Hints:
Blueprint: H1 2-87, H2 92-190, H3 195-299, E1 326-327, E2 334-335, E3 342-345, E4 352-355, H4 357-370
Antiparallel strand pairs: 1-2, 3-4
Amino acid sequence: MNITCKLAIAKNNIIKLQEENHQLRSENKMILMKTQQHLEVTKVDVETELQTYKHSRQGLDEMYNDARRQLREESQLRQDVENELSVQVSMKHEIELAMKLLEKDIHEKQDTLIGLRQQLEEVKAINIEMYQKLQGYEDGLKEKNEIIARLEEKTNKITVAMRQLEQRLQQAEKAQMEAEDEDEKYLQECLSQSDSLQKQISQKEKQLIQLETDLKIEKEWRQTLQEDLQKEKDALSHLKNETQQITNLKKEFLNLQDENQQLKKIYREQEQALQELGNKLSESKLKIEDIKEANKALQGLVWLKDKEATHCKLCEKEFSLSKRKHHCRNCGEIFCNACSDNELPLPSSPKPVRVCDSCHALLIQRCSSNLP
């Protein structure tokens, strides 16, 4: 009777261990599914961000090439203007055409500078977005490391449970050996007894067969547990490899940020060169205006200097970068673009030149009065 009670207790323990094993398997599967989904989502995000960064980098390269081309063109234009100034100082009409070309170039340069500044702001916004996404990836890595630590804890628990199961199996085997020894002794004693004792012996043999089958089942179950442990170890190694790949991607992103900063430095140097070029062009413009003033003085006209005028003669608005100065070719005074947006031929120049609104009205009145 003691043997049967022990066997029943052992069976109950085995059933409980099987249930615990099933629960652990289901929990491990759920954790693995969640980690795989999370890793797939992070991989897709990293790939999209790399593509956007490559596109932005190509755009910056194109901008840099365009700026270099514009610098070359501007240097060529500057050489042409200097040659024309040195050769054609005596020719008034060609100097005026060169002035118009210089003014157009300055306006175009200002527009390109504004466009480059807007593109720089866009690049700064992209860098801020990339930095925020990097922080999100670092948080995701921390969560993954926590999940890996939990998985390792669970694997440790499973190994402890396996060791306990092995100890219980050893105890069951010892109990079986002891039961076999007791059965042999009991058979020797029962040879002299009646048929009723033989029936009990046959029942005990049946119970032993059942125990053997249970032991075989437990061994098979142990093998399956070992295989599951191997699979979980493989999954953990796979997760570690993926985390290493993410850290490599992070290093590549930092390298790209360094390259972006170098490109910014190059852009700033080019912007300084453009500003110096603009200053030199403004100086050349002032020289041309001085030459014109000298020509006007020779002709008896009063040519007002740029430094002497701070407001428009007609509307009295203050001059600035957006509101530029313009000389009237008839009276020599300085006006804004709105008050001198007229062109008429003068006695000194048969071609149409810039004239202020008041001179324009007077000249038209003279022409109408001279007509028959």
